[in-house]
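Posting this for the archive.
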Amino acid sequence: MKNKTPLIGIVVGMVLVFWSINQSGELFNFYDFPAIVITVFGSFSALVISFPIKSILKIPIMIKKLISSPPNNRKELVTIFSDLARKARKDGLLALEDDISAIDNEFLVSGLQMVIDGVEPDSIKEIMESKLDALEDRHRSGQAVFSKWGEFAPAFGMIGTLIGLVVMLAELEDPSTIGSGMSVALITTFYGSLLANMIFIPIASNLAVQTDEEIYTGEMIIDGVLAIQRGSNPRVVEDKLLTYLSPAEKKELANAADVSKEATSYE
């Protein structure tokens, strides 16, 4: 499922910037190809130097993640674990094998499979926490790329400004060129600030929030898997996992349960 909110934010932000420019001047005055080259490709070159190539190659994957809805439906997980706990108490842990194929969460499936295979609880916890740590490391690496790009872009904007000032000062004999020369010199700072604050830093922030949410959901899954393995009472499992939900999510889940009971009573 696509999450178009970040793209909408970028588009709206850019439109507002262009509208502001258009209200006070000519859009064409803010176009300078050499300034774009030094700001965009210069900062990207510094990025290539700063990170291993495998991290740079993750940029398209990170952008895809940005516009994808994160798999963090914790309300659904409470329901899934409640149903699994009831089935495990009634028919035993091996009976859960039939339910695994219907679950669309690789991390949860791997944990449940270990439970069914009879792996020790400590080992299950250790393995799942290691997977979660590895996932966090991979995601943090991708965030670091955009965060660093957000630092480089204004710096290369300033480099472009300095280049423009040097060129302008070299032609100082002609005072008529000072205004246009200063304008071209400053445009790179504008590009660098715009790219950093409108694109790179917001993308890094978005990915950081998504990673935090994914880690939080992963911790919830580990608790649920271990509770099922212990044979905990389904109500206890549900109460424990409800602590991971916000008050609004708890209310939505309670309303959904009420609707379900009401529908069942009419059948």
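The two ends are 33 Å apart (CA to CA). The chain has a mean pLDDT of 86.
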